[in-house]
Amino acid sequence: MARIIMQPSGKSVDCAYGDTVLMGLEKAGYALPNNCRAGACGECKVKVTGGQFDQGMVLDMALTQEERKQGYGLMCMAKPISEELTIEWGTTDAQPKLFPPREDALFVVTEKRPIAQRVVELRLRPVGQPIRYWPGQYVTIGNSRAGIPPRAYSISNAPRPDGELVFQVARDEGGVTSNWVHDQLNIGESIKISGAYGTFIGDPSVDTPVLCLAAGTGLAPILALAEAALRRGYKKPVTMLFSARTKDDVYSQGLMAWWRTKHRNFDYKVTLTRENLEGYLAGRVDVVLPQLFPDLSKHTIFAAGSPEFVDTCRATVKQLGAKDELIHTEGFFAQQQPVVANADRLLPL
Q: Are 146 and 193 in contact (CB under 8 A)?
């Protein structure tokens, strides 16, 4: 058993014999960026400042000889061979550093389909380098030259090797950009997006039951967060409560049902606020939540949707004992502008 020490926070985790550094961090709940897990992409490159490790077989294009001399390693293949291994990762409070946002990255629309009464799903593939992001973040989509103002849309999938981004776009009757997406943007067209932005990523080191609350397309970042947690083997219960006005406003039930079948620790429920139908809960989140979770003192909470929905969620979960430091929210404003994290939370370019 080796100990991995993260600087500048000074926090540490145990790494079992034979495990890679990436595996040790993930088992302790830390979400180190990674992609190929085979020493080929360089996504998990980290500087090692103390101790020794066996790097294993990696590609020179992913880790150059100069980078090796400087102490860098690929954590997906690196195995500690000393009792302690010190790495530079995260911030002073052990939060992951964010990726610097990119401007006008070129993507192609590969799929567009209606998934609910007012919502279409977009799938975009990068022409060049993929945009790097954390689950829960968002990008801006638009076409300023054509008079389509950039608007913020959350990414609804966890990062994938091919760089595909998935979005759910709700039609806003007075919204130029959402109507452009619904009525004019076609499969095969190229668009430019900027990002990723936002800090709605929570604390990946928590080891508590998780409750995700979403309304409307606030489900998008929640889906990305849940997918990432389940993919990396999160063991504590993860429950999702999706609030919609009517059955016609509900989407992604198939995906959530698949997660529930595949992962024993995942469950989801849908509540309708304007209909009372068999198979669905009925009522606003402040009505149904106390019946489902009378005590949330040991839960981490993620809530996303309209500002009013988020405010209601925050007030309700606090009444049920949720701790402020474990409540993470994302309110969607009609004219939301990109929020770039402070420089000390960004990775170097």
A: no
Q: What are phi and psi of 242, to 5 degrees?
A: -105, 125
Q: Please, where are the H alpha helices in the chain?
A: 21-27, 65-69, 176-183, 219-231, 253-262, 285-292, 307-319
Q: Where are the domains of the chain?
A: 2-88, 102-197, 210-331
Residue written as token pair 């504590």 = 236
Cβ atoms 196, 229 nearer than 8 A: no
The amino acid at 39: G
How far is residue 39's CA from residue 34's CA, in Å, rounded to a whole number? Answer: 10
pTM of the predicted structure, to 2 decimals: 0.77
Is CATH 3.10.20.30 the right assignment for the domain spanning 2-88?
A: yes
Q: Which residues of 115-124 are buried (b: 16+ CB within 10 A; e: fewer)?
A: ebebbbbbbb
Taking only the tens place, the pLDDT of each residue in 252-301 is 999 999 999 999 999 999 999 999 999 999 999 999 999 999 999 999 99
Chosen CATH of 102-197 out of 3.40.1360.10, 3.50.50.100, 2.40.30.10, 3.30.420.10 = 2.40.30.10
- Supply φ then ψ for residue 243, to 5 degrees: -105, 125
CA proximity to 223, closest of 253, 193, 262, 263 = 253
Number of alpha carbons in the 13 Å side-chain half-sphere of residue 138: 28
Are 213 and 304 in contact by the 8 Å Cβ rule? The answer is yes
Tell me the CATH number for domain 210-331.
3.40.50.80
Contact 36, 46 (CB under 8 A): no
Q: Quick check: 234 and 263 in contact, CB under 8 A?
A: no
The CA distances from residue 115 to 249, 250, 291, 303, in Å, are 9, 8, 29, 21
